[in-house]
Every structure is written in C-alpha cells, then in structure tokens.
Write a structure and sequence with these properties.
nine-stranded parallel beta sheet
C-alpha cells in the first residue's frame, strides 16, 4: 500500500471516528446545539428588557440598541414608567392594539401615544363612580396624561350607586321620605378636579348619561343636576386652552344653559359651541346670543332644541353685529316664519357667516320671501340648508328670483320643501354658475 493510500485511509477512519463522536455527543446532550452563542451586547440588551420595570435604561443606549429594546418591550409595563420615558410611536401602537384592538389613529392627529392617553383618561372618567371611586385614581393619572391629551370625548358619566332604602312597613310616610332625602346625591364626575390640569386640552365632548344600561334603566341615570352644571361651567372657565365644547343629550334646559353661557363669556380661546339634542328654549337662546357678543365663536350648533321665534330674534340681533361666526346650525327647532324673517334681516348686515342650517323649522312662504331678499344683498353666505320646511311652490319661486341676483351661494338644500321642479332646476343652475365663479376666483387658470 502506498503512502498516499495509507494517509487517505487514515483520514477516512478519522472522519468516521469524528462523526461517531459527534453523534454520540448529540445523543447524550439533548440541549446541545450547533447554533452560535449570542453576542454579549445581545445578552445585555435582553437583560435590560427583562429588568426594565426595575431599572429602565433607554436613552443611554445607542440608536440601534434603543430600537432593539423598544421593539421587544412588553406593552403591559406600568404607565408610571413608560408615560414620560417612551416616545416611540411603534411602541404605543402596540399598546393601543393590545388594549383596544384595531383603531383609527387619524382622529388623534396620527399619534398613537396621544390616542392611548386620551382613551385611557376617557376610560377613567367614564368608569368613575362618585362617592365610590377614589379621586386619587384621577389625580394619579394627571402627571402621566397631561402632556398628551388634546381631546376628550366622554360618552357616559355614571351617577352614584343608589342604595335601596330600607324601613319597616310600620314606619310612616314622613320617616320614609326622610330616609330618601338622606341618600346620596345624583351628582356626577366633577370636572373641576381635572380640566385646569390639562394644559393642551382643546376639545371636550360630554354626555351625562349611561351607555348600555339595558334592563337596569332608570331616569336618574340620565340626570344632569344643577350642581353638575355649576361644577362643569367653572371647570370650562378654568380651561383657558379649550377651543371646542360639546354637550349632547344631557337635558340641558334654559337655566343650565344660562349658567354655562355666563361662565364662557370672554373665554380667550373658545371657537365652537355645540348644545345639540337638549331642552334649550328662548331664555337659553338669549344667553347664547349674549355669549356671541362676548366671545370669538366661529361655530354655534344648537340643533334639536326648543328654540322659537323670540329666541331666534335674540340670536339674529347678535348675528347682525357679529364678525367672527362662520357657521350657525339651528336645525330641528321651532323658529317658524318669525325666526326665519329675523335671521334674514340679520344676513343683510352680517358679512362673515358662511354656513346656515335651518332645516326642519316649520318655515313657510313668508320666511322664503325674507331669505330671498337677503340673498340679493348678502355676498358672504355659501351654504344654506332649508330642507324639510313647507316653503311651497310660491316660496320656491321667490327663492329662485333671489338666486338670480346672488353670487356667493354654492350650496342650497331645498329637499322636502314642496318647491316645484322648475324652481328647483333654476336654483341648481344658479348654484352651478356660482360654483364655477368661485372656482375661477380661487384658480384663475382653471378652465371655465
């Protein structure tokens, strides 16, 4: 046997022997692996992630290491640690999806962190039970949320838990009524403890009611008490950054409307006020009219209330002198022809109102005549909604005549007004002509 053959044979035997040893090692140690040992930096980063709650280390890391840690931190970490430490949007996206599932972040300025803390604080308020929930739960959340909350949409406010009254059947009616008077108040969450501590709050929407009460329905679950109103009004006054305030479906009557309006007089930043779906009538409308003259409101919405002619006359008087309001919504009230005529007279003097909604207000031909005359002189109004009124054929004709002299109106809703088709067609043609003029004025190079 040659030397080369001998060494080749020896090499084969050694390889076979190595293979047997390798198989033997694998067979004897089931945890053994051919994988490489992790890098020391990886082991360190994994240690930081594991013990982040006890010792949060983040900003001291290099950017690539910081990204590695943020991608692997659990979304269940306490907010006391993460709120003012982590700004990474991908982390807060994971937190939002873990808590609420899929959600539309576009309504939160495309910020997942803003979304998380707005919904978190909203949940605390909506589940707060007066006389039961410790106010510390709200106050402890403030330092965590205050820099990130811009909008609060509170869709329910829980009343106190009412204990069933117990008394002997032999007790007289006086003792029974006494016990009832000693029960807990029906006041809700006091916004005074919160609003002045949110320096970036711009919008607040509130409903004094309970969602999904089911078979446990009681009217007192939907009671907006006078003390509720006073505390809310004072809280609104203290929140100087507030730009939008909405209170819906909360049985706001004239007295409560006056309290809120009086506290909002000369508010430095309020631009939109929405009292939709309440019980406001003429007295409340007068208070709102006073507010128009002492504020910078741009949008006023009081749809689905009980405002009649006298209340609208007060609003119209304020509108005639106002130079900030651009949108007024009086849909589903009871202003009738008296209110329509008053608003028409105000439109002759007003130069800033752009949108006016008067749908469902029992207006007839006299209101149409007054509005038609106003359209001849008004060059600011761009959208007018008159749907679901009884303008009639003659009312449609006078509106048609007014539109032939108007150059600004580009939208006019006259559905369900008994206007005939010829008038409707002519009005649509006039609107189309105004639309073309408006487009050309904004873009002179556009083809007409």
């Amino acid at each position: 046997m040659s030397r080369s053959q001998s060494s080749q044979r020896s090499g084969v035997m050694n390889s076979a022997s190595d293979g047997q040893r390798r198989r033997s090692i694998i067979a004897e140690d089931h945890e053994w692996s051919l994988a490489l040992v992790p890098l020391l930096t990886t082991l360190c980063l994994q240690h930081i992630i594991k013990h982040f709650e006890e010792k949060p280390i983040l900003h001291e890391l290099q950017p690539s290491f910081k990204t590695y840690v943020l991608q692997r931190l659990p979304a269940s970490l306490p907010l006391t640690i993460t709120a003012n430490l982590i700004s990474d949007e991908s982390y807060w996206k994971r937190c939002c999806e873990a808590r609420w599932g899929l959600a539309d972040v576009s309504t939160y300025d495309n910020s997942w962190k803003q979304m998380f803390f707005e919904r978190h604080l909203q949940s605390i308020i909506e589940l707060f039970i007066p006389d039961t929930t410790d106010t510390k739960a709200v106050l402890d959340a403030v330092p965590l949320c205050q820099n990130y909350v811009k909008r609060l949409q509170v869709s329910q406010l829980l009343p106190p838990i009412k204990e069933p009254s117990r008394f002997d059947e032999d007790d007289g009616s006086e003792s029974a009524s006494d016990m009832g008077s000693e029960g807990p108040s029906m006041d809700h969450f006091d916004f005074r403890m919160l609003l002045d501590k949110l320096p970036n709050l711009k919008e607040l929407s509130v409903v004094y009611g309970v969602k999904g009460c089911g078979m446990n329905f009681e009217w007192n679950l939907f009671e907006f008490t006078f003390r509720d109103c006073e505390s809310l009004a004072k809280a609104l006054n203290s929140c100087k950054t507030l730009q939008v305030f909405r209170i819906h479906r909360s049985k706001v009557d004239d007295e409560k409307c006056c309290v809120i309006a009086n506290h909002l007089l000369d508010h430095p930043s309020l631009q939109e006020l929405d009292f939709s779906h309440n019980h406001i009538s003429d007295l409340g409308a007068r208070a709102i009219a006073k507010l128009l003259n002492h504020s910078q409101l741009k949008t006023l919405i009081v749809c689905n209330n009980q405002i009649r002619g006298a209340g609208v006359q007060a609003l119209a008087h304020a509108l005639a002198k106002n130079n900030t309001l651009t949108s007024l919504n009086l849909r589903l009230n009871r202003i009738a022809d008296e209110g329509g005529q008053a608003l028409a007279q105000a439109l002759v003097k007003n130069k800033t109102l752009v949108n006016l909604h008067l749908g469902g207000n029992n207006m007839t031909e006299p209101a149409a005549v007054a509005l038609s005359q106003a359209l001849v002189e008004n060059c600011a109004l761009k959208s007018l909604n008159l749907c679901n009124n009884r303008l009639g054929v003659d009312g449609g004709k006078v509106l048609e005549e007014g539109m032939t002299h108007n150059c600004s109106l580009v939208e006019c809703d006259i559905r369900l007004t008994d206007v005939d088709q010829d008038s409707e067609y002519s009005i649509c043609q006039a609107l189309h002509a105004n639309q073309i003029k408006t487009k050309h004025n904004h873009d002179p190079s556009a083809k007409v």
